Amino acid sequence: MNTPIQVGPPQLFLFLIAVIGIALLISSLMGLMSGQREMELFEDEDGRQYKRWRKHRRRFRWKRGTGGVLMLILALFLLWLTFSIQSYLGLTNDVKVAQVHAQTFENDPQHMSVSLTTLDNNGKPIASKVYSMNGDRWQLECTMVKFPSWMNIFGIHSSYKLTRLEGTYSDPNLESTSKHTVVTLNGGDGDFFKTVYKQAWTSPFVDAAYGNAVFQPADSQTYDVYVSQTGLYAKPAGK
Q1: Does the predicted model carry a pTM greater than 0.85?
Q2: Range of 19's domain?
């Protein structure tokens, strides 16, 4: 599984705001609580007197805690703002994971040549291969592990793994009766995904685990394939 970590000036700035918000939150909560100290005079059996500070139980200072309440509101606002902006950045900062070019053969429109180039998290090519496949449209599949939105503050993108390239047919009749070509990528789903999928509904660190796919016709165009926080999508290269 690939888990892109999106770290840059926006994430560092938001992390700093979050730290300030947490510090203000702790300070405001401490400010709303007071531990009063009073000087008390004691006398021992020999008549000697001595003084000692006695600390009373903490109690809420609602009348004197206006500043603390305002700091608390400010802290919560900063934390809410941080998570909201980071969630937006996470949803809009997609990762380019592959490039696909497919075209059918002139004398056989139900067979195609598919060129697949897989990319790393930085957009650099990892591997490139051409496949001869049945069908007139290609389908690229992946497995996804989606994390809770609160983890966006750390710039953690949803995990993904490209698992399968398949040739399909635009004609439903051919789709149901013709032979399909399937190429396994990166070892398929693997045991890791199967384990995470079973535990996704009970883990506080996994929001969902599921399969996802994108397909396009073999129209001789080159498509860039991106992974978002929720799954794959493709668009013509250069757009």
Answers
A1: no
A2: 9-91
